[in-house]
Write a structure and sequence with these properties.
The chain is α+β, with helices and mostly antiparallel strands. It has helices at about 1-15, 115-130, 160-170, 175-180, 185-200, 225-230, 230-250, 265-275, 290-300, 310-320, 370-385, 460-465, 505-510, and strands spanning about 45-50, 65-70, 75, 75-80, 105-110, 135-145, 150-160, 210-215, 220, 250-255, 290, 300-305, 325-330, 340-345, 350-355, 360, 395-400, 405-415, 420-425, 425-440, 445-455, 470-475, 485-490, 495-505. The protein starts with a helix and ends in a 29-residue tail after the last helix.
Length: about 550
């Protein structure tokens, strides 16, 4: 592994963490406009209390039993909720979290699991869902992290049948990047991007969110300055600090369930040790970066055994649903970027708590992370209804796939405003982030897909390249409540955004065809030379 990192760090880190940093551009406010300075923020702590046998304690405790400190300074508890308050209200809808009961996000990790493991993961998740009642106690959604994308197969629903349908119609695919060691850094970046995207999607959802990640998680990275160099280590730390804060801000706890076929491997043992380690008061990511640290930092749990993944899923769901919620308001947090250690203790020393370990204070010296900025822009544009016209794109060739409740279409994207860069050999290339979302009538996202795409062109003339057109094939789930589909594309260099919308009537009127079998690889989209203009008539 160390040899692989040494081989890849020079060439690949440049692609994963670009040197060009997009700085946020703001305008100075007029002097006669009053300015309000926010000096404190309400911090939510979802606290699971365990007895000596590791069983959740759900009664008999009051606010006075808890003590909170941040960086060893006592904090006044602002509010307190007991576990019995975390149940769905009688008026809560089928797919609309009301903020009382915790919601569950099941993530199937194809990206970092081998073929046998992923088949086992699918089987065990299916067994778990089949054991649930027809109407779940709280909404859940189903995601898959694939070779190229993070895909939301089914948005929040309490309908078990909808989740099973989405799982049963997940196309089989080979984990190409996991099979090829040259994609180490790609898998690392995609895994953390997936956590950030989940946090962005759920930031506006009230209450606690439990991410049950079934699979190995992103690869372990050692922050070795001698091997990676100081700039790369600095950028990696900033990347994971931002990811941690996004998860904490969204009230997300990460539960990781290893499929169990390779529990003795080095990556698993490292993740397990980090998940149960006492972080102390230092930066939890000062040593290694792995999913075990994210588990610890967000107040989740790591489970692994050779069999019964469905049993571990039930344990994680129970642990994530039987908890107390406490809030406090820290004062005068310095903008030094350092880790703020949160500790919750109980008056009864025979009990222990599981909650998030802390957060990173803001750092005015940090550069804006372009990957995080891009994801935030994409999330905002996908959720919006306003037009985005900085890129010229249209949707064509729509085909329905009734057997999987999905739709395939082609996005036609013109080459102007794309920020082309020299790729050598007389060619130019550009990197794009492509998102597609299915939305219900009230604007809720019921399915989504996000991926990074690189396109190239051999055209040398700028005018021709601006009018040339690339065809980007996309497929997205169209659950029964879908009313519209929105496609959003943003350039990774320059941040230009374009959007195109597709209504349900157009999808239902499109020709139907069986879902094609997945291909092992997809070629890079090529910009074609525009058709010549017809001769002028006399």
């Amino acid at each position: 592994m160390r040899f692989l990192r040494a081989l890849l760090c020079t060439a690949t880190l440049l692609a994963v963490f670009p040197a060009r940093i997009m700085m946020a551009q703001g305008q100075q406010a007029p002097s006669d406009v009053p300015t309000f300075r926010v000096t404190s923020t309400l911090v939510f702590l979802d606290v699971t209390v365990l007895d000596k046998k590791g069983h959740p304690v759900v009664s008999g405790l009051t606010k006075d039993d808890f003590t909170i400190t941040e960086d060893k300074k006592p904090q006044k508890i602002f509010s307190f909720e007991a576990p019995e308050t975390h149940v769905m209200g009688a008026q809560a809808g089928d797919d609309n979290p009301d903020g009382k009961a915790p919601v569950t996000i099941f993530v199937l990790d194809l990206l970092n699991s081998n073929f046998q493991d992923f088949a086992y993961i699918r089987y065990e998740v299916k067994q778990f869902l089949m054991a649930q009642p027809a109407q779940l106690a709280a909404p859940a959604e189903l995601m898959v992290v694939g070779n190229e994308s993070l895909e939301l197969l089914q948005g929040y629903t309490r309908n078990r049948a909808d989740l099973l349908y989405a799982l049963n119609h997940l196309p089989a695919a080979l984990p190409i990047k996991e099979m090829n060691g040259m994609f180490f850094w790609d898998r690392f970046a995609q895994s953390l991007d997936a956590l950030q995207q989940i946090a962005l999607q759920n930031k506006g959802v009230p209450g606690r969110k439990n991410v049950v990640w079934v699979g190995h998680g992103g690869p372990n990275v050692m922050l070795d300055e001698a091997e990676l160099g100081y700039p790369a280590v600095r950028d990696l730390k900033q990347y994971v600090h931002a990811t941690t804060n996004m998860l904490v801000d969204a009230r997300i706890s990460l539960f990781v369930i290893y499929p169990g076929l390779h529990v003795a491997s080095g990556s698993v043992s490292v993740g397990a040790m980090e998940a149960d380690a006492d972080l102390g008061d230092d930066d939890p990511f000062s040593g290694d970066i792995n999913f075990g640290v994210f588990v610890n930092a967000t107040g989740g749990k790591l489970f692994f055994r050779r069999n019964d993944v469905d049993m571990e899923m039930a344990r994680s769901e129970r642990m994530g649903s039987e908890y107390y919620t406490l809030t406090y308001m820290p004062q005068d947090v310095p903008s030094d970027g350092k880790f703020r250690r949160i500790r919750v203790t109980l008056r009864n020393r025979n009990l222990r708590v599981v909650t998030k370990a802390g957060y990173f204070a803001p750092d005015g010296k940090n550069r804006v992370d372009p990957r995080q900025k891009t994801l935030m822009n994409i999330a905002e544009a996908a959720s919006s209804t306003i037009p985005f016209n900085a890129l010229d794109l249209t949707v064509a060739d729509v085909v329905r796939h009734p057997d999987t409740r999905s739709a395939a279409f082609t996005v036609k994207l013109k080459g102007k405003h794309l920020g082309w860069t020299d790729a050598g050999g007389g060619r130019s290339s550009t990197n794009l982030v492509v998102a597609a979302v299915s939305r219900s009538g009230d604007g809720s996202i019921v399915a989504s897909r996000l991926e990074h795409v690189s396109v190239s062109s051999g055209l040398q003339d700028r005018a021709q390249r601006a009018e040339a057109e690339a065809s980007l094939p996309l497929t997205i789930r169209v659950p029964r409540k879908t009313k519209t589909v929105r496609v959003v594309i943003e350039t990774e260099e320059g941040g230009r955004i374009g959007a195109a919308d597709l209504d349900r009537k157009t999808i239902d009127a499109a020709p139907a065809a069986p879902t094609p079998q997945p291909k092992l690889a997809r070629h890079r989209p090529e910009y074609v030379r525009p058709a010549p203009a017809p001769p002028a008539t006399q």
